[in-house]
Description:
Blueprint: H1 19-36, H2 53-91
Amino acid sequence: MSEPPAQPPRSTTGPAVSLPLVVAGVCLALPFAAMLWVDSYSRLTPAFIGIPFFYWYQMLWVVVSTLLTVTAYVIVRRHERRRTRAHEGGESR
């Protein structure tokens, strides 16, 4: 009888894509999706302090995009720090 095939060694580094990185990716993709969906903002009303909706909606997304980009940056930095600490802790044993 032949032996069963050997199992490949399991990775101890965790999943290839973790939840924090998925959340960061969504934060970065959301502004693109919002701006590419032109039918959602291609109108004049409701106006805000006399500015047509088309313009103030796009300017609002400049601020929202900045906040989402900062959020994604913080998430990725924290993830990288944890991963580096876990990697360094595993090597010193």
